[in-house]
Amino acid sequence: MKNNLVVVLMTAALAFIGTISLNATDFSVANPKDIALFPQQNAYRNKLDLSGIWNFQLDPQGVGETEGWQNGLPNPASIAVPGSWNDQLDQQHNYLGYSWYETTTYVPTAWQGSDIGLRVGSAVYMAKVWINGQPVGMHEGGHLPFAFRINNYIKWGAENRVTIMVENMIRPDRVPGNIDGGEMSRTNFPNNNYDFFPYSGLHRAVWLYSVPREHIADITLTTDFSGNTGRIKAVVEKVGSVNAGRIVVKDKQGRQVATAALRFKGAEAQAEISVPDVQLWSTENPYLYEVTASLEKGSRTVDSYTLQTGVRTIRVEGDQLLLNDKPIHLKGFGKHEDFPIFGRGVAQPVMIRDFGLMKWLGANSFRTSHYPYDESVYAEADKQGILIIDEMPSVGLGFFDEDANINRRKELCNQYLEEMITRDKNHPSIIIWCVANEPSPKALGSNVMGGRSDADEKENRIAKEFLGDLVHRAKAADPSRLSAFVGVMGGPAEWMEECDIILINRYYGWYTNNGNFSMAKMYFNGELDKLHNDLKKPIIVTEFGADAIAGHHANEDEMFSEEFQQMMINSYLDIANTKPFVSGMMIWAFADFRTSQALMRVAGKNLKGVFTQDRRPKMAAHLLKKRWVDEVKGNY
Ligand code: BDP
Q1: Measured from the CB, is residue 200 less than 6 Å from ligand 1?
Q2: Helix axes 375-384, 348-360, angle to 10 degrees
Q3: How many angstroms separate the alpha carbon of residue 588 from the centre of ligand 1?
Q4: What integer pLDDT is reported at residue 8 of this predicted model?
Q5: How far is CA 544 from the centre of its chain?
Q6: What's the pLDDT tens digit per position in 517-531?
Q7: Measured distance CA(488)–CA(485) in Å, rounded
Q8: What region does 361 belong to: left with phi over 0, alpha with psi -120 to 50, or beta?
């Protein structure tokens, strides 16, 4: 009750502030194409990481822009970028509203004559950028980068002020947000309809970078093989009049194994490259080739860009998920980017530790629930042979409120999809694009006892169209991977008909059937068979698990104990081992993580991690090591 009152007061207080309008004059809206290639340092390109201590100021009244804070913050504190703003300074853990970031930098004189860009890795939720007080651009949606060309705003030979205003209000016309009404709208604080803390701010590095005026704008690699020969298809896009180039493929020892000429027709050139005696990329042997595209004017190279890629295929055939034509079973987790104090800010030591822990217990995969992660995570997964279900930040979608909200959410989802695929498409580790997590019917709550929810006719029509279109868009943008969304427990199975593979979250024995675990197992077992029978596709259980308070021990029938969590995970895995059509079991979650405050969230956390938030193993982690490394029996 108390929480609800606070929410009402906060909402009323914020209503008058308004939010950043996308129509704001002078600010160009970020173009997803501009995030295609991560800044790279080589002989033709430069990059400068602006990470460090920035100036920071909250703007609870939303007066900064009219008072000219873009020309200098009146009373700034220090803050680290990247990092969530929530826990770095006092009194702003739950803050919803405007905040301002500011830093200064020289742009190296040697970059003159190049195209200069500014790339923001992730700003949750909405951002506006100024350089030297001049409006540059804006972007909506966190967890994905945006970039602007900034040549016209730069001062050479002098300091430049970079100012970024970030605004993080949670609304029904935002994704993720909070939809009024329905069983999925929560009574938590801050009030959102997703189960992770609404950490905000500049979560990833901000980069300055330069590319030659005539440059490679994008590279798309897709791979295939037959027998011993690998095939890499490269589509290269360029800017400028240069019309020739080259692709060179090198193996791990740096030996050139293949090359092809690029002849541009308009802005695009394509090349098919054969790789003899190919070493396929797999979880056991994550072999990466180095693919370099270059632009050439006569004998002069004007730009080049290098990608590390693996040659591999992924597809579904009948009941099986096939990596390089061989059945693969995903053993892994749903995760979060979440760590004390960092919040959702990039924490690379934690990232490296997580990969180590996944290997330690024999996992081969994870889902980037519930948003795309930092670029470095995918590069590491490519190297370590870990498979990824890449999920865009479309969690908690509903289809029953005002049309205007639903339409806006769809526009945002389309944008996120384009951004995610543009950014991530060249990573061999990514095998599935996940276009949403748990889109839910309004009446879901009363139907999660193993039954199906009755969405009304209009809701059903909108949901199927909305989700079907997202799945198809992903397939059209990238036919080389699978496309799906994660179905909620109790949700209509027919919503998933267009998915290439069935992804489901199930919590029998936790959110239902409490204290009656034999009933929970029966439901889970029965539903797997029914879903498979109805949809005839392989199934990955992308979430299942139980909260366990680390160090709390009891008999295994007592919820919240480590024993209960272990027993539950064990039972689900045993059941999955009896179903040949189950292609993956991903435990929710890898580690405990912060959520908004609510009665079910002890200490403000979801405790379903098999590791604690600081990565200490619970009993369940040891169980997984036993099942997946020490005494392997069956698929899981
Ligand atoms: C699922 C959500 C996930 C939650 C989990 C839970 O996909 O984000 O954290 O349930 O309740 O519904 O633990």
Answers
A1: no
A2: 30
A3: 8
A4: 36
A5: 20
A6: 999 999 999 999 999
A7: 10
A8: alpha
- Tell me the DSSP string of 326-339: EE--EEEEE----B
φ, ψ dihedrals at 361, nearest 5°: -100, 10
198 residue type, one letter: P
For residue 531, report the distance from its CA to the centre of ligand 1, in Å: 20
Show the domains of the chain with their CATH numbers: 2-211 (2.60.120.260), 215-309 (2.60.40.10), 326-506+539-633 (3.20.20.80)
Residues marked active site are found at 438, 543
Residue 183 Cβ contacting ligand 1 at under 6 Å: no
From residue 58, alpha-carbon distances to 14, 202, 626 in Å are: 14, 14, 49
- As a whole number of angstroms, the distance between CA 390 and CA 204 comes to 18
| Residue 392 near residue 417 (C-beta atoms within 8 A) | yes
d(CA 457, CA 454): 9
Classify residue 11 as exposed, middle or buried by CB count within 10 Å of its CB (0-12, 13-18, 19+): middle
* Residues of the chain with confidence (pLDDT) below 70: 1-25, 182-185, 445-455
376 sits in the region (left: phi over 0; alpha: psi -120 to 50; else beta) called alpha
User: CA 368, 393, 586: angle at the middle one, nearest 5?
Assistant: 30
**519 alpha carbon, distance to own chain's centre:** 35
Type of residue numbered 89: L
Strands 430-437 and 387-391 turn out to be parallel
